[in-house]
Amino acid sequence: MKTPEPSFENPSALDSLDFKQSFRFTPRQTRVLVALADAGGWVSREEIDRIAGASNGPQIIMELRRKVAGHDGIEMQRTEVQDRDGKFCKPGRYRLTLSGRERVQKALSLLVEAA
């Protein structure tokens, strides 16, 4: 079964709704959001898990895409690495796109204002 293509008509919640009234971030989401905004490049899935304090990094990324960054706002790339047993695997890594970075900066500024 094929995964449906994401809709880019409404790339993020920030573009269509009143952010302050509609959204709240969990502490895990907030930590990951700040880490992605501060990162100059890619952040590995393992780092996302450590930052979040949980082992569900892809779920948190999905939630952040829905809430603030949009599907086009957080890029994911699989890289081929060799694990400690000599087996090859393809863990993911994430980074903000330019449009995602703008949306995240707006969200973080609104979080600061609301505090």
Structure description:
The protein has one domain: Arc Repressor Mutant, subunit A. Helices cover 47% and strands 14% of the residues. The strands form two sheets. A three-stranded antiparallel sheet has the order 1-5-2. A hairpin with a 5-residue loop joins β3 and β4. The mean pLDDT is 83.
What is the topology, as strand order, of the major beta sheet?
1-5-2
Fraction of residues in helices?
Answer: 40-55%
Sheet with the most strands, sense and barrel status:
3 strands, antiparallel
**Which shape, going by the Cα principal axes?**
elongated
Average pLDDT value? 83
Briefly note the CATH topology name: Arc Repressor Mutant, subunit A
CATH architecture: Orthogonal Bundle
- Rounded to an integer in angstroms, the radius of gyration calculated over CA atoms is 15 Å
As residue ranges, the low-confidence spans are none
Number of strands: 5
CATH class: Mainly Alpha
Supply the CATH superfamily name: Winged helix-like DNA-binding domain superfamily/Winged helix DNA-binding domain
How large is the count of helical segments? 5
Short description:
Helices cover 47% and strands 14% of the residues. It is of the alpha+beta class.
Essential attributes:
single chain; 115 residues; alpha+beta; Arc Repressor Mutant, subunit A; 3-stranded antiparallel sheet; two-stranded antiparallel sheet; 5 helices; elongated
Question: What is the fold's blueprint, element by element?
Answer:
Elements lengths: L18 H4 L4 H12 L4 E2 H8 L4 H13 L4 E5 L2 E2 L5 E2 L2 E5 L1 H17 L1
Antiparallel strand pairs: 1-5, 2-5, 3-4
Helix pairs in contact: 2-4, 2-5
